[in-house]
Amino acid sequence: MTLIEKVRKGTLPLPARKSAQAEGLPAEEIADLVLRGLAVIPWNPRHAPRNPCGIGRGLRTKINVNLGTSRDFADVQQELAKVKITLKYGGDTLMDLSTGGDLVRIRRRILAATPIPLGTVPIYQAAIKAIDRRGSIVRMTEEDGHDQYRKSNTMTYKNSPKFLGDQFSGWKSNI
């Protein structure tokens, strides 16, 4: 069950309570913002951040830090150092934009090192695989996107069936 489904049923899930505490607001107020579509709480029950945060109207401004490897520089230790700096200076969320190295391993290491929400861009991994398989990102196929989307959703959104619509339907390569 998703957070919004729990809130709709009248419960105040732990992420809403923790977010409210961090904001200095009543949990019911955070829940109301989520229900009205004015705030979100990034939350994945399979990889739950220890320090969730609410993002949206009426909440404090959040600091998001982008990090990530590249084909030219795929040093996971460097990315883990960035995670430490993010935490030291009060970052609220991380976004892994890695495009080089063992992306699954890199994401797992970053995820294990952070108590804050971590976002990723699964289409980047599909693009990298297209380069490896077909020699160019512009040769990425609809199936490449579908494959990575399924892998990401199995890992990330398994408990959110209403989210699992076919995001790639109708997408076609220009080549």
Helix content: 40-55%
Give the averaged pLDDT, no decimals: 84
Oligomer category: single chain
Strand content: 5-15%
- Note the run of SSEs as H and E: HHHEEEHEHEHH
The whole-angstrom Rg is: 18 Å
Total helical elements: 7
Could you tell me the number of beta strands?
5
Question: What class would the helix/strand composition place it in?
Answer: mainly alpha
**Main pleated sheet:** 3 strands, parallel
Uncertain runs are 155-175
Q: Quick one: overall form?
A: globular
Distance between the termini: 40 Å
User: Widest sheet: strand order?
Assistant: 3-4-5
Task: Please give a structural write-up.
By secondary structure, the protein is mostly helical. The protein has a domain of 59 residues. Strand 3, helix 4 and strand 4 form a beta-alpha-beta unit. Helix 2 packs across helix 3, helix 4 runs parallel beside helix 5 and helix 6 packs across helix 7. It is globular. It starts with a helix and ends in a 19-residue tail after the last helix. 27% of the residues are buried.
Itemize the secondary structure elements and their pairings.
Layout: H1 3-8, H2 14-23, H3 27-35, E1 39-40, E2 55-56, E3 64-67, H4 76-88, E4 93-96, H5 103-113, E5 118-120, H6 122-134, H7 142-156
Parallel strand pairs: 3-4, 4-5
Antiparallel strand pairs: 1-2
Helix pairs in contact: 2-3, 4-5, 6-7
What's a concise summary of this model?
Helices cover 44% and strands 9% of the residues. The chain has 175 residues and is mainly α.
